[in-house]
Amino acid sequence: GAGVSQSPSNKVTEKGKDVELRCDPISGHTALYWYRQSLGQGLEFLIYFQGNSAPDKSGLPSDRFSAERTGGSVSTLTIQRTQQEDSAVYLCASRRTSGSGTDTQYFGPGTRLTVL
Amino acid sequence: RKEVEQDPGPFNVPEGATVAFNCTYSNSASQSFFWYRQDCRKEPKLLMSVYSSGNEDGRFTAQLNRASQYISLLIRDSKLSDSATYLCVVTYNNAGNMLTFGGGTRLMVKP
Prior knowledge:
The structure holds 2 protein chains of 2 kinds. Chain A contains no helices and 10 strands. Chain A is mostly beta strands. In chain A, strands 2, 4, 5, 8, 9 and 10 form a 6-stranded mixed beta sheet that branches. A 4-stranded antiparallel beta sheet of chain A has the order 1-3-7-6, with no helix packed on it. By secondary structure, chain B is mainly β. In chain B, 0% of the residues lie in helices and 55% in strands. In chain B, a hairpin with a 2-residue loop joins strand 6 and strand 7 (60-65). Chains A and B meet through strand 4, strand 5, strand 8 and strand 9 of A and strand 5 and strand 10 of B.
């Protein structure tokens, strides 16, 4: 079946502009996560959605970052007034939360963001 | 101190060699443990879960030592295709099941 998809695959923007990154999780997966991977750094958790519950935003690095998940499916990560330190690969993952194999998070291919 | 620590490597080994990676975690509330594999400019993919009793999947063996807060991955009979970065991952006792990643260990298998 289809995996997690993300768009765009690459985004180059100028400092100060806003960007939106999109994630389509695997159909039927109720949990959705955003992570980012900066050059030379490990992956860091940003935000988590589970069903209709309030999202866990504990990993967002600043108030310039926000995310939505509409209809329990597609999610959008928005970065306002981008800074050069926002340059990273932004990875989305989804997880099935009932039945067997519920621990596994499946990652999308990521969006490579470059802020000039 | 990072929550999950790994030797970044690189580990350069010849084909057919056995190689082992270690990982330590600092939070004793850690609940689940995994090894992920990440190829260059690709997303991480689950390699295997790690259980207290130890588990094996073909050429790969994972071990967990909760007392020492230590996880290992052993790869036997290395193949060229094993070249990748191996990420040690833990989750904690929370509802979110968020993954906490180590920095990764880079493996290069050479002919």
